[in-house]
Amino acid sequence: MLRPTLILGLVLAPLVACADGQTAAPPPPAASAGGSPERPAKLGLCTACHGDDGTSRTAGTPHLGGQDRLYLARSLAAYRSGERRHEPMTSLANALQPADIEALAAWYAAQSGFAGGSQP
């Protein structure tokens, strides 16, 4: 069961303050000329386990391709804040800035997703 603080952290983590005091989800990173997000500078931190296209090649590691962008951004923010705990993910997420998190979330959300029948 998720703790209330975890749920609140996942909901509020990707929000940014607007000039009028309201909050809004941050915009996705800039797209390349083809309309898909540009390859994130920090993608190399993720590819060993999650692959460039978001298809995991490691047993027990989730596929990220095609996942919801906001879900991915919130998950990375939760690892970074310590709300979600997984030692390798926490270490990697702590190396990311909010712009890196948004770029990675947009990249993996734009991938086609896992087309096979089961995870390795």
TrEMBL record:
Signal peptide: 1-19
Record SUPFAM superfamilies: Cytochrome c (SSF46626)
Cytochrome c domain boundaries: 30-112
Classification via Gene3D superfamilies: Cytochrome c-like domain (1.10.760.10)
Alphabetical keyword list: Electron transport, Heme, Iron, Metal-binding, Signal, Transport
One Pfam family named in its UniProt record: Cytochrom_C
Protein's recorded name: Cytochrome c domain-containing protein
